[in-house]
Amino acid sequence: MRGIWIAGLVMLLLIVPSVAEENSSIAIQNLNVEPQRLFVGDSAIVTVTLYNPLESAVKVSSVSVLGSGISYDSFELGYIPPKSTHTFSFAVKAVKEGVHNVEVAFYTESGAVRSYFTLFVENRMPEIAFSENVKVGEVNNLSLIISSPVEIENVVIDPLFESEPDRIILSSVSGTAEVPIRFFGERSDYEFRVSFYSGNNYHSYTAKLTPAFEEGSELAVSVSVPQSSAFLYDVVEISATITNLKDDAVSAIKFSASSNNGKVLLSTDEIAELESGESSEVTLLYSPERSGRDVITLAISYKDGMGKERTLEKAVNIDVQDSSAVDVSGVEIEAKATSSASAPPRGMFGPTSSSVSTRVEITVSGEVVNRGFSYAKNVLVYLDFGSDTEEYFVGEVEPSDSDSFSIPASGSERSVKVVVEWTNELGEVHSISKSYQLNPITVSTTSPPQRQSLLTPLNLAAVAIAAVGGVLVFRKWRSRRKNESNRAG
């Protein structure tokens, strides 16, 4: 305990100015040093009050200031009036760091009066540091720590990078002080313009801070693709979950999507805000239109906690098959060709001629197959004969399902095209077609009754017989007339 008291007394003697007199006619009534803690190059103002107790004026012939690590400009005081005090100030400049004991002596004709004070000189300027590691890639909400071995006043700190606030003002700092600061973390040095007063000494300098870094959190984007391949014109639902892993909220989150070989539709194109730790989902409806490997890219832009726009992308690959999601299969064609002949009016001579026409009566049946992962809507099947069509409305076909159709038709063509048309879940109309040759199973011919000619062999024979009979009758009749005439004569 005794040692502590002695140490305290020594420190008090070092700090408090002391006075020594050598039979001088004047006395040092007061001595004040401001500031007593300095930076190298600073000046302390020493204010002294001298008292003359005599009835006559006293001349101060000279003044001396002695001490290592300091300098001062010499000056003269002159006379101090009788029974009065005289207060004056002079500057002592610190030129070297350390603890310096300084002696001030005032000389008169009758002797000298002395006083002592101590200066604490620092070579280290105020320092700044972040309270935590800087997270790269996200907004940091940290404290800026200012530490100074000397009390400083009117402190102004200007961050030379984008931050909130963009200027920090402190009335004074003694030891350490902390102020909040908010900025976007990047892997680089951070510079500050620092200015302050130490007593009457003004300082301004640029401080460079190289903090410890750690990888910051981002917006985490998780994409779920139901399958790695898809059929042409199908609609694949791709889910994306966006999670804010940052320490602060993000806002104005906007989405856009693109594809090399197809079309992409988003369930939403903007989310107002995501708080820290909050998640949200967005759905991409993707419809491939060309086969091969396709890249679907989800682009995200958002504003961080400081209102600055940031961007990121997430891409997924899908292999597109060279076949349509909707197809027609199991097509069966039942066909029967019928022919009919027509005859002209009966002629008098020669055989008759007729014209023959053939007509095909068919029934086309089959299955509309949906191999995709989305609904096929407004499915229509029609038969295209070139100049004529027959339609059959199927309606809606569920994913991985099929529906049958059967279409009767007739015509004289020898081939038919089966066309399937549908609307996918993006509202786009697509169609496929397949051609088939008609192979009749049976052919039947129907002809109308032919008109007989009058000059048939039977009719000719009858005419001949009738003619011979007529000749015989006529000759017999003439013979009888001739005999009758001879008798009469």
TrEMBL record:
Gene3D superfamilies: Immunoglobulins. The chain crosses the membrane at residues 454-474. It holds the Pfam family Ig_TRAPPC9-Trs120_1st. This is Trs120/TRAPPC9 first Ig-like domain-containing protein. Keywords: Membrane, Transmembrane, Transmembrane helix. GO terms for molecular function: protein-glutamine gamma-glutamyltransferase activity. SUPFAM superfamilies: Transglutaminase, two C-terminal domains (SSF49309). PANTHER family: S-LAYER DOMAIN-LIKE PROTEIN-RELATED. The keyword Nucleotide-binding does not apply.
